[in-house]
């Protein structure tokens, strides 16, 4: 039996980095903030899970400054394991917790590229899970996704749930990672749930998405539809550089922990300085609900054959960076984002807004649909499975 426990999500002030060596200052602050968070959080129900939000180690300077991808990979990305994860492992051992965190990191097979990697450390300091982010905050994120190297990834790791949505089976439940914008795509929550996930890390998201309920709605939806906990601490004040005197509230707060029924069980609106959010995780209650509910344990009713029809035709292009590196923001918008919109319009999934040129006429006999000959977009956009 797994006793109920507290999960704590840190909401740290952090500093953007110029080099990998600058990460040490952020980790030092996380160590101090953990001590402050555990001062009261450990008094009633023991803390067994500590979550550190995305950006807390390195910031987001690769994205904000539109950095050259390869240069950032060489000067700022980390290795997992490495000195930075060793310090976090010591933190996990000190407080006897599982620790969830994130970093921009290299893969040993791709030294000139970097990924956005979520990882979990055990109370013994062992890395028990690594998840490579699948969906980015496009077009501004600089990291590559396994989908950008899809054919290679499948050849190396397989075409399985574990290859893309890994889950760690631990003494505090089954843990998974769904970072930031990944939580905006229902497929990621469902992939984790169907691989057994019970507690999922979802951090961080910037303003304005937090300020207009985007973050809370998607957190609660993923938790409810998959009957899983979502631990979602957001970032605190962001110093753009290590020597920047003033912090910017780039996250907008709204850190939270959501239970398996979509109910918020811990919430922290503030981002003025460094703080934390905490809430109780009850794995046995989750398992009881999944086993006994007749309606709201949704996964038992998935019509998989119908879902497969929804995804038969590819939309976003795979293998983009097998032989290239991620481009600058403007080039990405022009070469990818705009073409993806055109693709959905060419398939008549989206209709062009009023006043847009070349509004397609409905096909004869099929109101509102295009003829088969016009069902596909330009050659560079279409992709075969």
Account of the protein in words:
The chain is an alpha/beta fold and 385 residues long. It folds into two domains: 295 residues, Nitrilase/N-carbamoyl-D-aminoacid amidohydrolase; 46 residues, no CATH class. The chain is built from eleven helices and 14 strands. Helix 1 runs parallel beside helix 4 and helix 7 runs parallel beside helix 8.
Strand and helix map with partners:
Layout: E1 5-11, E2 14-15, H1 23-41, E3 47-51, H2 61-64, H3 69-75, H4 83-95, E4 98-107, E5 110-121, E6 127-132, H5 150-157, H6 161-164, E7 168-170, E8 173-177, H7 186-193, E9 199-201, H8 214-226, E10 229-232, E11 238-239, E12 255-258, E13 264-268, E14 275-281, H9 283-292, H10 304-310, H11 329-346
Parallel strand pairs: 1-3, 2-11, 3-4, 8-9, 9-10
Antiparallel strand pairs: 1-14, 4-5, 5-6, 7-8, 10-12, 12-13
Helix pairs in contact: 1-4, 7-8
Q: Can you give keywords for this protein?
A:
Aliph_Amidase/BUP, 2 domains, globular, disordered C terminus, alpha/beta, 385 residues, 6-stranded mixed beta sheet, Nitrilase/N-carbamoyl-D-aminoacid amidohydrolase, 11 helices, hydrolase activity, acting on carbon-nitrogen (but not peptide) bonds, in linear amides
